[in-house]
User: What shape does this take?
Amino acid sequence: MQKPIVVVASNNVNKLREFSQILAGYEVVSQKQMGFDEDVEETGETFAENALIKARAAANALGKPALADDSGLCVVALNGEPGVYSARYAGDHNDANNRKKLLAKLKGVKERTAYFQCAIAFVFPQGKEIVVEGRTYGKILEEERGEGGFGYDCLFLSDDLHKSFGEATAEEKNGVSHRSRALAALLARLKEE
Assistant: This one.
């Protein structure tokens, strides 16, 4: 039996892999695989606004339902930075540079509470839109730990796992991540429809 297709408005291979692992009952395809390869500018001020911008663009271009997420790391002591700018915090979409900047800004700071937040938008071509969010809490380490994951994972000490996301297996991370929690909320909403 063929799995239902979910078009993800992203070409980020790390996100696509996570979506595929979490949405095991679906065939996850990127917008590029479906023929839409436009790089949509994220001009929103919140994760939800950016997710909607991307999902609307893909749904309108393809005429199919599309899912998009926007997510990032929010550090309490930095008033929520890097937030929606997480991927481009250091200005160049470079994970190592982003982590370096974050550690520099937190040098000498004792309060290191942080959370990853994810907003997911599911947009139907006829205009119906669903937006859900998920969070996972932890602290920012003083140095990188672990080789797994991507982005800030090796600096994020998960409250749930008691180790960094960089040290966690994909299954462990996906069990408690902001993205998996947002996807669970989305699946619950879709069942209500």
Q: What stands out?
A: The longest strand covers residues 129-140. The chain is about 30% helix and 25% strand. The mean pLDDT is 93. Residues 5-192 form a domain with the Maf protein fold (CATH 3.90.950.10).
